[in-house]
Write a structure and sequence with these properties.
- This protein has 298 residues and is α/β, with parallel strands linked by helices.
- The chain has eight helices and ten strands.
- The chain has helices spanning 17-33, 58-81, 96-103, 127-135, 168-181, 209-230, 246-253, 277-285, and strands at 9-12, 37-43, 87-93, 109-113, 140-143, 157-160, 185-191, 236-242, 259-263, 290-293.
- It has a ten-stranded mixed β-sheet, sandwiched between helices.
- The longest helix is centred in the first third of the chain and has 24 residues, at 58-81.
Length: 298
């Protein structure tokens, strides 16, 4: 018989202010899900080395002890504010991105700040968050600076809907989050042309605006239908937006959201892109935490 791994919320922290905000968000998520919280810190010596070297003396030992103290201090606060939450900590030897991608194989969701220590100042979003959003085996929740709302917020969850098969997982995740938070769901669909009626059919060069909007509305309704049946208590607001830039529209929507959810790839994304342009824009510029969902993740 194959052993079952207990669902766990995982958060990666490095002691930076942003990662400690992510820890608070992860604790809230674990509490809502009734799951334990695993707090992970990656330790690599020398710092930023291309290969793992086991720290065994001197400065390395002092640095490792400092990481352990940081974890202890951070989790003591969480245990005070989230009474009854099962919290464990671990320091893993290795690079942060590789470590957290591996952790994602055993997690229900993994939470990170969008920047931590070691990022170049010219990078708007840290490489760890971007690599996780691209390669993680579970949903990834990226917490941007000053975007973590109060747990008492009534702001809706927002989900970008594009009608693709891969987007189905993101829509389901958004419904689940809205239900667990007790808030409404806003489903945003940005269209510039009517959807194809079949996979091999071209979109027309010219079309009637009203007919195109109705077709886009039908596609949105079809994307939501099964999930609305599963979560009948979630109030859903549908927003159809005629525009050429879904990333811009979703960034605007994030200003009035408790969470924004998108797939890691959407309609029209080039296969060579590691993370779709919409996801990249939101990780860089969203006004609330961003959940990136890869198709097929649990």
């Amino acid at each position: 018989m194959t052993s079952q791994i207990h669902p766990t919320v995982v958060v990666g922290i490095d002691g930076s202010e942003q990662s400690l905000i992510a820890l608070d968000v992860a604790a809230d998520e674990a509490t809502r899900r009734h799951q334990p919280l695993r707090v992970v810190s990656a330790f690599q010596w020398p710092p930023f080395a291309p290969s793992i070297q086991v720290p065994d003396a001197g400065v390395a030992d002092d640095s490792l002890d400092a990481v352990r103290r940081m974890l202890t201090d951070a989790t003591e606060k969480i245990r005070r504010t989230h009474t009854g939450l099962d919290v464990t900590t671990v320091v893993i030897l290795g690079g942060p991105a590789t470590t957290l991608v591996d952790e994602s194989t055993r997690a229900s969701i993994i939470v990170v700040g969008n920047r931590g220590y070691g990022g170049f100042t010219s990078l708007l979003a840290g490489s760890v968050a971007t690599q996780l959003a691209t390669h993680a085996h579970c949903p990834v929740l990226v917490v941007r600076p000053h975007t973590a709302p109060s747990t008492a917020t009534t702001l809706p969850v927002v989900v970008g809907v594009d009608g693709t098969e891969g987007n189905e997982t993101a829509v389901g995740f958004a419904f689940e989050e809205a239900a667990s938070r007790g808030v409404s769901l806003t489903a945003v669909s940005v269209w510039s042309q009517p959807p194809r009626s079949g996979p091999d059919q071209f979109k027309p060069v010219a079309y009637d605006y009203d007919e195109a909007r109705q077709a886009a509305g039908r596609e949105l309704a079809e994307s939501l239908a099964g999930h609305q049946e599963k979560y009948p208590d979630v109030t859903v607001l549908r927003e159809l937006i005629c525009g050429l830039d879904p990333a811009h529209e979703l960034r605007l929507a994030s200003a009035a959201a408790s969470l924004i959810v998108v797939g890691s790839r959407g309609r029209g994304e080039l296969s060579g892109l590691l993370l779709g342009s919409v996801g990249q824009t939101l990780v860089h510029h969203a006004r609330c935490p961003v959940a990136i969902i890869r198709a097929g993740t649990p």
